[in-house]
Description:
It contains 17 helices and 16 strands.
Amino acid sequence: MHLTPADARRISGSYSVVRQPDRPDVAAQSDPKVIETVSAMLSEIERDGLPAVRRYAERLDGWTGGEDFEVPESTWGPLTDDLPQDLRDALDAGAERTRRFAEMQRSHLVDFEDEVIPGVVCGQRYVPIGSVGAYLPAGRFPLLASAFMTVGVARAAGVPNVVSCTPPSLHGQVHPAVLYSARASGAQRVFAVGGVQALAAMAFGLLDGVPSDMIVGAGNAFVAEAKRQLYGQSGIDVLAGPSEVAVIADETATAQMVAADLLAQAEHGPSSPACLVTTSAELAAAVEVEIERQLEGLATRDIAGAAWRDWGSIYVADSPKTAVEIMDLLAPEHLEILAEDTDFYLENMRNYGSLFLGPWSTVAYADKGMSGTNHVLPTGRGARYTAGLSVARFLKQLTYQKATRASTQAQAGPVVTIADFEGMPGHRDSAQLRLDILARD
């Protein structure tokens, strides 16, 4: 997530580079070995079905639970009862706020119909997809809010069948906090299976007999590649690479806050890029020093430090307008505005996954579900052409039309003309038939 020579030619203002990686950005799916491994796994699972899922689960997940991967609902309570009460309260709050925002979004997606020309009425309906498979990661960091953003939002959209998969990580059991988060989000069925085999099992309908119309959720490079290869068999949310954070800051921002917010996202992984664009050279210099200071006391410094060392960037822009130009080219997944005039950036920015305005709004809040917006967002400059996961992604915008006899000439006449020119007699005859009926009556 840094500027290329081609980018530089598109920026009208001036800027200076304080630091940036000396290598190309990490592609979301680029490792040939990952691509080959995933392809072989998917082919085997599609051919052999659930026995292949079980073989991979035993080898990769350490699964010893026998034939049935489902976590019985009767065990959900006992498995989560020992979680701290404050954690349960926090997860309940995140699930409820994410659901509330999704319901607010849904209320603004309205069905309608109206007359296009006299006698021709067109309309649209929002219809939920039939089945969703949600992957809930529980690896190095169990991302507890993932269920809010996937299971909970799908439920808010009215999806009738939602299944969830999460890897068995504790003595053959699913992670209790992940399970609690799933339950708080309205999960219906949870299966203890992880990785590529989980996505394949949901896409092919091997767990509950219903192929998932859409598979969603974060994961490692193998999970991301599986989603890419399964696209077409099922819909997906986004093709995500390493988590990204960017900050636009002016002289009113503090180096302490900028550094803390950059490192908070850098700890997602050693290839997670973090970028600062500032209109203050003094702040740029102070942030570099402050990041090194904060890394000394950060428990995840081996991860966040590597991410900053290898993928961190800082640019000093000559104006807010130039800062916007730079960020719209980078199209970051998460973008914080730590500047006095946040409205300027809200009105002028076009390319980002989600925007965080002012010092009292931080990416960490949304990551954990506390603000209610979805954190399944495009990376790798994908925000140039797509938004992240939302209630709208679980709804199909279906159109329909109906016409009266009196509108026939207005439609059929031009169709005959166009079809004749194109050399498509079937289209011409379909329209001309109706004209002939009118002429006879």
